[in-house]
Amino acid sequence: MADSIPSKKDFADCINQLVGQNVMNEKKMDRLLLEAKQSYRNRGLDGFFEYVRNMTQTSLSDGQMRQLMESIKDSTGPEQALSRMVNQVKLSEKQAQAIENAVEERTRKATKRKRRRKK
Question: Which of 29, 71, 74, 118 could, after both became Cys, cross-link 8 (CB 3.0–4.6 A)?
Fold first, then answer.
């Protein structure tokens, strides 16, 4: 059963394949998930939706976000979930690049903070 659960790498690979660029890896996925969880913990579903809107640079309403969540939740695997997401949100190459840049910047900042703490 555990073999059927997609890994973070699976999702990262699917994102890269769908947007046609190498914008995601496991480290970036960890950072993205951590920040999404923090947004949800701090501000609930509204905070999570706002985080997703900022990351994707889209202007989806809360209702559209809920529909997207349901669509992803009902998917059979990462490929179908991401395909549905891309089809519903219509991520452009510019938006995919913006997501990559934001995740990379946050990952760099987090790495710097960890290094400072170790000193």
Answer: 29
